[in-house]
Amino acid sequence: MIKSxxxxxxxxxxxxxxxxxxSTVTTAxxxxxxxxxxxxxxxxxxxxxxxxxxxxxxxxxxxxxxxxVKKYEVMSAKHAVDAIDWVVKVIRILIQLxxxxxxxxxxxxxxPWSRDITHTLLGxxxxxxxxxxxxxxxxxxxxFFIIVTFFLTSRLVRVLRFFSKEVANNRLRLxxxxxxxxxxxxxxxxxxxxxxxxxxxxxxxxxxxxxxxQGISIFLGVLLSxxxxxxxxxxxxxxxxxxxxxxxxxxxxxxxxxTGKVVEKNLLVTRLSTPKNxxxxxxxxxxxxxxxxxxxxxxxxxxxxxxxxxxxxxxxPWRQVHEVLLESAKGIESIxxxxxxxxxxxxxxxxxxxxxxxxxxxxxxxxARILSDxxxxxxxxxxxxxxxxxxxxxxxxxxxxxxxxxxxxxxxxATQNGFRxxxxxxxxxxxx
Length: 432
What we know:
The protein has helices at about 1-20, 25-60, 75-110, 115-170, 180-200, 210-225, 230-245, 285-290, 320-330, 365-385; strands at about 65-70, 70-75, 250-255, 260-265, 270-275, 280-285, 290-295, 305-310, 340-350, 355-360. It is of the alpha+beta class. The chain folds into four domains: about 1-110, no CATH class; about 145-230, no CATH class; about 250-295, Roll (SH3 type barrels); about 305-385, 2-Layer Sandwich (Alpha-Beta Plaits), CATH 3.30.70.100. Strands 6-5-4-3-7 form a five-stranded antiparallel sheet. A three-stranded antiparallel sheet has the order 8-10-9, covered by helices on one side. It has a two-stranded antiparallel sheet with strand order 1-2. It is elongated and about 150 Å long.
């Protein structure tokens, strides 16, 4: 019994050696093992990343939060998790492709007839990596120069930002430099500094001397020069308005015939809100090239003068007109008693006299309403005084017409001449 069992084991060993001695079978077994190993590794990688992605979902709102800028939610926690999940998925695919790329040469090396393919695949994979590594090592000095340049640039910008905030908050005062200049000056200097840094590091960028890179640069330059003429003009006008300081946000101004309160002033446009609550946007190029009337440039306690003008005939006594106009300015809300209202006779026209009523107010934002109330009061007081608000136009034969001088102002010895009538054909003979 024992003998038969030993003989059987011996025969089995000889059979196994015979199988293993067969190179084809060994090669097939090795190929199967390589494929199974590849499947196992890919499965482990897939499960690992599946667990990572599952864990990311549990971190939503806790470790992974949304991103906000000044109370504006740029990215919610869910969108942040989705973005990270997409990145993890891409990394998994790249790792799996890399494993397959490294495993294929191992699989081809099992078979003698495909070992040349193995060397070719290894060359296709390793040679680019080798060239990439050598290129990276050769580029390290330029990369170090770029990093140092932008590090120093960022430090300089941070220092300028600190000083601009100090000036804007009125903690640091510079003679002749207004606090509202701080932020735009900082933004301008920051752009210039970054452009200067980019010019310095441009020759050290990879591919900067290639024709394709130069062609793209020329194309972008042409687009900017042809398509941004008005934008550049408005930006220059915006900087002019910043440093000329003709108005600030909150002032009541008149620009190109439009009156309103300044609600926004940026680099390209200025926005006004009219008394009728209509927002008007004016390009800064138009603002800087037109006359600007600022009704709020002085302190609020000083206020401004408002005027309204009427024209009346010479037959109305001017002293009476003054009294009526000054009386009409009394009792109107927002019109100050000091300085007192006054009347100017601004013109002695051919047929009428122009009377300008000047009143004082410290509420320029209510200018339209104040002028409306003032005009209504002028009408009421002129009607009560029997004064017609009209501008007569007439032609007179002075020999026989009554004088337009008011009766109280006429000389006591003034006489009125009658008409001189000559018979037909007797003109010039002295007959009357």
